[in-house]
Design a protein that fits this description.
single chain; five-stranded mixed β-sheet; 26% strand; YaeB-like fold; 100 residues; alpha+beta; 2 helices; globular; 5 strands
Length: 100
């Protein structure tokens, strides 16, 4: 299955990698690989991840406090690469179909 990355999710990924790189280049590489692995797992079996907020699902990364928030449409839509210890639900306004 194919996927698209919301522009803000792509930005979150870049920022997290940049922060990791400032701390440790190897850590940044591991984080990037973990994001890629999570995307592969989601694309292989998106229904493995249960819904947690309406139609949205979450795939937690191994070894990092991040989760990919996505929904299944014609393709997978990754809405956020969410740090799990900060401001839960901040990404909800990225869904134009959700009532405000």
């Amino acid at each position: 299955m194919t996927y698209s990355l919301h522009p803000e999710a792509a930005q979150e990924t870049r920022e997290a990698i940049a922060w990791s790189k400032r701390e440790d280049r190897v850590l940044a590489l591991r984080f990037r690989r973990e994001i890629d692995a999570a995307l592969q797992k989601i694309c292989s079996n998106p229904l493995l991840y249960r819904c947690f907020d309406g139609e949205f699902r979450r795939c937690r990364t191994a070894g990092f406090p991040y989760a990919l928030v996505f929904r299944i449409r014609a393709e997978l839509e990754v809405i956020a690469v969410m740090h799990q210890h900060r401001e839960p639900g901040y990404w909800k306004d990225r869904d134009p179909s959700r009532p405000t």
